[in-house]
Q: What sequence folds into this?
């Protein structure tokens, strides 16, 4: 099943589960040794680097909250983060932009 379908078919997708689908998809398309070690801001910056318009790094505080604390209790914010993940899978894969080697950053 395509990654975007995993996010779409699960109507109860949480931002953390949607981001996990994105991570698994990224690991399938980009060098595992580079992608697997990315966390926090570097991970979000990598995701943005594959898009024409950034959608992740600008929302770093919201991602931190949903991933590392009890989460955001705002349905609209949660839905927007899930939609960003779906957008990434649909627009960034297969890779169309030149891959930036994260070992150099």
A:
């Amino acid at each position: 099943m395509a990654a975007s379908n995993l996010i779409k078919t699960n109507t109860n997708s949480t931002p953390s589960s949607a981001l996990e689908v994105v991570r698994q998809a990224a690991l399938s398309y980009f060098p595992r040794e580079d992608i697997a070690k990315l966390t926090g801001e570097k991970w979000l910056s990598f995701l943005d680097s594959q898009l024409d318009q950034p959608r992740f790094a600008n929302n770093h505080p919201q991602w931190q909250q949903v991933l590392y604390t009890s989460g955001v209790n705002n349905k609209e914010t949660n839905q927007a983060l899930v939609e960003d993940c779906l957008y990434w899978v649909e627009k960034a894969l297969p890779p169309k932009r030149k891959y930036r080697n994260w070992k150099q950053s």
In short: Residues 75-92 form the longest helix (18 residues). The chain has six helices and no strands. Residues 3-93 form one domain.
